[in-house]
Amino acid sequence: MKKINIIYLIITIALLSPFVSSAQDDMTTYTLSTVPQSYYENPGQMPLCKFHIGCLPAIFVPVLSSDFTSISNSGFKYDDLIHQRKQNDSLYFDFEDVSDGLAKKNYLILNQQFEILSFGFKIKRMHYVSLSLTEKFRFRLTYPRDLITMIWKGNSQFIGSEADFNGIGADMTHYRELAIGYTYKLDTKWTIGGRAKLLFGLSNIWTKKSDVTLAVDEDYYDLTANSDFQMYTSAPENVYNTLFEEDSMTLQDYKDYLFNFHNPGFGIDLGATYKIDDKWSVGASIIDFGYIFWKTDTRRYSMTDKSFTFRGIDIAQFIRNDSLQKDAFDQLVDSIANIFKLEEENKHYASPLNTKIYLSGYYNISKKDRVAAIFRGEIYENTIHPAFTIAYNRVFGRILDVSFSYSYMNRDFLNFGMGASFRFGPFQMFLSTDNFLAAIIPYHTKNINVHFGCNYVFFYKPSSPLLR
Amino acid sequence: MNRFKRFSIVKFLLFLFISTIFISCYKDRFDMDLLEEHGEWNPDVAAPAIYSNLTFKDILNDYDDNNLFVEDGSHFLYLVYWNKVYSRSAAEIFSFAPQNVNTSFSFSVTGTLPYGLDVAAPPYTTDYAFFTPNNIIVDEIDLDSGRFNFIVNSPDLNHNATINVSIPSATLNGVPFSENIDFIAGSSMNSFFDLSGYKILFDNSGATKNVLHITYTVTVHGSGGANNSPYQLNLNESFTDLSFSKILGDFKQINFDLPNDSIKIRMNNNNIHGFIDFENPMIHVYATNSFGMPIRINITDFHSTSGWNAPYDVVVTGIPVPWDINAPSVAQMGDSVTTEFHLTKANSNVWDAIAIAPQWFVADIAGISNPTGAPASNFALADSRFDIDAKVELPLHGKAWDLIIGDTLDFDLGEDIDVAEYIDFRINTTNGFPVDATLQLYFMDKFNNVLDSMLTPQQQVINAALAGGAPDYLVYQSSHKLTTSRFEKSRLTNLKNTEKVFVKAIMATPQNGNQIVKFYSFYGLEVRVGVRAKFNVIY
C-alpha cells in the first residue's frame, strides 16, 4: 500500500513534468537569444520580439507541451559504479571507482519545472514587461564522500581522524512562482531589468544544519559521534502519511495540496547588460534571491550538539554474570537512541531559494555568429557551486537559431550541449540540452537535462538577432 | 554555399549514424539481467570491544553478600569471609512429641437413677509422665499452642453423663484448667480443649519426672434406667500440637555434633596454583547463645584445604580446647551471650593455613550442654538459639607470587569468523594495582581441546603500578601497557569450533612477589581492547 502511495506521488510529479517549459537552469538555452525565456537568466537582456506568449500549445495540444528535466549526480557516473566485463559483457558493481572519485560533498539533484503561462510585450522599444506562472520542483540529496567510503572501505581509514558527514541530508521544494518582469533600455549601452516573484510553497524539506562526524580514536578505536542537526519540513499530513505510513491520498487531498496558498514567499531577479561596442557585450545577474515562509504542517527535527562515545562493552558485567547479558546490549542501544533522539516540534520557518549569480560575455563574430562565455554560481550551503559554459551561436535566417556549447558543471568536464529554436511564422519551438553525450553515452555522464518549449513570438526583429 | 550545405548534411547524417551505433551499444550497459549476482566487499573496520574499569571485587569475582570487602577509614581493604558454622534453634532442640495418655477407669454410683437425678461418682486421678525431648526434666512449660483431645466411650454406661476434666497445675492467667465433656449414653464423644497460653507445672518430686496429675469426675444423669454399676469409661486422651514459649527445668546433657562444616574462600575459587603471603591473616570464631544453659564445645578438627598447593591441608592450631560457651542468666532471659576466640599469627598457625591459598576451611564440631553433669536450672525460650559463626579476615597486605587464576567461560565466535582476512587486537591496560600479570586466553572446543591462544608468545600485559614504602605502600603512579595480537585468516578458520575460552592470569606483586603491598578500595585496572578487522564478504 505504501509503495502504491509513493508511486502515486511519483506519477504526480511525472505528470507535472511534461508541462515544464522555461526553467533556465540549463546553460545552452541561455545562449539561444531568439527564445524569449532566455532572458530569465538575466532580466537585463532585452527580448528580440515585441510580444510573446508562451505555452498555449501546452494547454491546447499537450503532446507538444514543453518540458525541462534535469538530473545530475556530481559524485559519480553510471560506469563508475557499474562496470562491464570484456570477457562476457556481464555487469558488476565497483564501489572503488565511486569512492575514489567523490568530492567532499556530492549532490544528486533533480529539477523539474514547467511554465503554466508566460507572456511579455515591448513598449516603445525601450521597455519590456513580462509575466509568467511557473511550477517548480527541486530535489537535492547531499551525500558526503566519507559516508560512502566508510560504508565501502570501513572506518579504519579514519583511525586517528574523523569521518566528516557534514552536509548530509536532503532538500526538496515544490512551489509555484508568479513573476512580473520589467526590462528597460537605459541607452545604447546599458539595459537593466528585474523580476519580482510571488511564491506559493506547496511542500518542503530543508536541511538547515547537518554537522555530523564520526571520529575513530587512534589508541583505543573509540568511536565518537557528534551531531548537530536541524531539518525542517512542511508537508500536509496526508502527504506525510502517504510517504511514511499506510495511508493514501484522495482526489480532494491532491486538490488541497496543489491549491495551497498558505506558504507565501517572495523572490527577486536583477540583471544588467552593457554593450561595449558592436562586437562585445557583457552581462551580470542575480536570480532567485528570496525566501518562502512555511506555515502549514511544519515540523522541525533537531538534534543539537549531541555527542556519544562508544568505548566498548563493560567487561565487568561479563565477569559478574559469566556471560554478556542481552540487557547490556539493549541498554547500549537504548542509550545511543536516547542521545541521538530527534526532537520534533511544530515551528514556522523560512527557507531560502537557491540563489544564482550569472556573469556573461558575448562576442559577435558577425551578424549571424556569436560566441559566449557564461559563469554561473549557484549558492547553497554557504558555498558557490560554479558552472562554466562557452558557446557558439548562429542564426539561419528567420527560421533557425542554433547553439553549440561546452560546459563544466557538477564537477564534470564532459558536457557538450546543443540547442535550436525553429520559427514557423509566429510559432516558435525550441529544444536544448547541455549534454547531448548523455544520449550517446549515458553511462559516462553526470548531467542530463533536456529543455523543450513553445512560444508565439510576434514582431520579431530578424535584422540583428544577436545584438540587443 | 551549396557545397557547404551538402557538407553539413553529410556530417549530420554521419553524426546520426554514429549515435545510433552508440545507442545500440550502451543498451547492454543498462541491462540489469547481466548484473552479476555476487561481488566482494572488503571493509576494514575498527571498533572498541572492551572498556572496563575493574575493581578488586571484579578481579576476585566475589559478590556473595556473606563475603565482603571491608575498608577502613584509609580505604584499606579487608577481605572477610563469614560462615555460620553451626546453628540450632529451640524448636529444633526441644520438640515435644504428641503425648497419648489413654486413660480408662471404672466407676460406680449407688442407688436408683430415676429420671432427673444427677449422681456423682468419686473422682479419678491419672498421673501421666510426659515424654520430653532428650529426656530433659521440665519444671514448667508455657505453651504457645497445644490441644487436649478426647475420644470418650463407654461399653456399658446406660445413662448420659458429664465428665469434668481438671488439671490443677495447668493454669491460664492463674485459673486452673477445668473443663466438662458431655457424654451421651451409647455413643462415642470427640472433644478437645485449646491449651494455648497455659502454664503447666510438672511434678518432679518423685522418682518419675515430668508428671502431670489429671482428675476426672463423672456425674451420671439418671434416665430412669437400671443402675448397672460399675461402669467402664475409656477417655483416649492425648496432648498434640505442643509448642512452647518458655521451658524451665534441667536440660541435662544435650549433644551438639556437626561434622565437616566448612567456610568457602571464594577468592581462591579459580585459583590453580600460587602463593599469597598475607601479613596478618585472622580467624575469628563467635558463639552466640540465648539458651539458659552452658555449652562446652570441642572443635575436633579445623583445617584449611587447598586442591592445588602443598601441603594441601593445614590443621589450624591455637583453638581453645575445650571451648566453654557462656549462657545468659535468668535475669538475662531473652538476651544472647557471645563467647569468642581469635586466631592470629601470634597465637596460631593461621598464617600457614592461609599461605596455601585454601579454597575451604573445614571444621568438625562437637558439643554438650551442662558439661559438669550436675543438676541444673536451665531455660529456653521459643526464639532461643545457639550459633557458631566463623570469620576469616584477610587484610590485603602482603605479597603474592606465581598466583595463577583461571576461569572457563562460554564463548562463541560464530561460523562466519573466517570472513575476516585478519583481526588485530589492541589491548591497553592502565593498572592501578601493584601487581604484574601475564594474561592468556585459550580458545577451546567443546571437548576442551585448545585450538589457539590469544597471545603468542605469552607475555605480560599488565605492569604493576608503582607503590611507595611502609607503612601505607600507596600506589603513586599507574602503569600502562599496550599489547597487540594479530589473527590471520588461517588461525581464524581454526577458531570456528571455539565454544569456550579459558582465561588464565599469572599474577605477582612487584619484584617477582618480593615486594610487600597493600590494596586500597580506590585502586582499579582499566582494560581497553580495540579490534580492527578486515573482512572479505561475498555477497
Q: Secondary structure elements and their pairing?
A:
The complex is a heterodimer of chains A (468) and B (539).
Chain A: H1 2-16, H2 28-31, E1 51-54, H3 56-60, E2 67-73, H4 78-81, E3 82-84, E4 91-93, H5 95-101, E5 105-123, E6 127-144, H6 145-153, E7 162-164, E8 169-185, E9 190-216, E10 223-234, H7 237-244, H8 251-258, E11 264-275, E12 280-294, E13 298-310, H9 315-321, H10 326-339, E14 343-345, E15 349-352, E16 355-364, E17 369-380, E18 383-396, E19 400-409, E20 412-424, E21 427-433, H11 437-440, E22 447-458
Antiparallel strand pairs in A: 1-5, 1-22, 2-5, 2-22, 3-4, 5-6, 6-8, 7-9, 8-9, 9-10, 9-11, 10-13, 11-12, 12-15, 12-16, 13-14, 16-17, 17-18, 18-19, 19-20, 20-21, 21-22
Helix pairs in contact in A: 5-6
Chain B: H1 2-26, E1 40-41, E2 44-54, H2 56-60, E3 67-71, E4 77-89, H3 90-93, E5 99-100, E6 104-107, E7 118-120, E8 124-129, E9 137-152, E10 160-172, E11 175-183, E12 189-194, E13 199-201, E14 211-221, E15 231-234, E16 238-250, E17 255-264, E18 271-278, E19 282-289, E20 295-305, E21 313-315, E22 323-325, E23 337-343, H4 350-355, E24 360-369, E25 378-381, E26 385-395, E27 397-410, E28 420-431, E29 436-444, E30 450-453, E31 459-462, E32 466-467, E33 475-477, E34 479-488, H5 489-494, E35 500-508, H6 510-513, E36 517-518, E37 525-535, E38 537-538
Antiparallel strand pairs in B: 1-38, 2-37, 3-4, 4-26, 5-16, 6-15, 7-14, 8-14, 9-12, 9-13, 9-16, 10-11, 10-13, 10-14, 16-25, 17-24, 18-27, 19-23, 19-26, 20-21, 20-22, 20-24, 27-35, 27-36, 28-34, 28-37, 29-30, 29-31, 29-35, 32-33
